[in-house]
Amino acid sequence: MRRVIASAALGLALVLVPAGTALADDDVTPLDPGITALDPSITPLAPSITPLETITTEDSGTAITLSSDILFDFGSAELDAPAAARIGELVAEIPQGAEVAVDGHTDSVPYARGNQVLSEERAQAVADAIAASRPDLRLTVTGYGETRPVAAEEVDGQDDPAGRAQNRRVEIRYDG
Amino acid sequence: MTAIDPARPRARHLVAGALLMGALTLTGCQVGTGEIGPDEQSTSGTSAPAGGGTGAPSEDAVVDEDAAAAGVDLTALGEPVASAEVPAIVEGDPTATMTVSLHELRRESETLVATYSFTVHSETSDTEAWIYDYLGDQGWHPYAIDTVNLNKHEVLGGGAAQTDYQGAKFRPGQTMYAYASFAAPPEDVTTMDVLLVDGAPLASGVPIS
After folding, report:
1. Domains of chain A
2. CB atoms < 10 A from the CB of B6, how many?
3. Distance to chain B for A76, nearest Cα, Å
4. Is the pTM of this model over 0.90?
5. ipTM of the shown complex
6. Which residue(s) pair with A139 in the sheet?
7. Out of A69, A73, A82, whose CB is closest to B152?
């Protein structure tokens, strides 16, 4: 009770400071240290859902980055029909006859058949889906294995699965 | 009904405590553990002999109470809908493996709750460890794929809404149950592909119950 009264008194004192009187920062006492906002404890659902593609446009051209976790099973380079169809939709707007690079990448976790092989196979699978819907495009297919990560796979010495997931990808790049 | 190995009361007590802690710290996703032999998990049948003295609750009763406190009904889990066996890191046993099973993928309004179990198989070791240890100092980060809309659903809260892979320890031969919560896909999506554990194929076409 005493604390409440003291706080109220302090609040009153602050209110009664004549207009135009500047208060130094050290003179200002926060009145609400006991109030905790509720919203930090509420977790929105949407950020936990990652779409198949991320599209970025820069001066050097456009890059469509596809998540390998969504496209492929572990160690697989097989695309199912919905995934192939979606890739066809994503490349529909690429200029007629454009040169397109299809680059496969993996994370650094060792894989029995080799990350280099897997990245090449996955890039080729995506290229096949592109060619099926856009035979006019000139495709260059390359696998880079784990050599070109876009995210760190360890943070403070701890495994970072989100970083590894970002590195498992196939990129479609073209001018325009 | 779950069968219990009464020879390991200390470990049972440990996992019970972890279970309760999980129930208190996680909202909508609880931890469940029980000492269930690898060949006995998710089966119905006869209970093992009760431990403790006269008047003490049976091991079965204790486990069932713990599970209920955590919102886990071990008797209703049923057979796994998918399982994978991966190498397990167990000191002194290079042949150790771990069976990771997915028991159900349940829609609860806007979220999905997946129930997993982990059982380590070792011929030589009886040392308790975390999932993190058995995976070779790697975390457990399950996810689900909506193959209709081509979206990846990761554990809610940046990975917080799942059983802590450095929470409860368990021994080879015991089974640890774990939960993970994801955002639910649209209502017309009735199956998802689900990652059981890194390094294993996705469980494809898991029905959403």
Report:
1. 2-41 (no CATH), 46-174 (3.30.1330.60)
2. 16
3. 9
4. no
5. 0.73
6. A100
7. A69
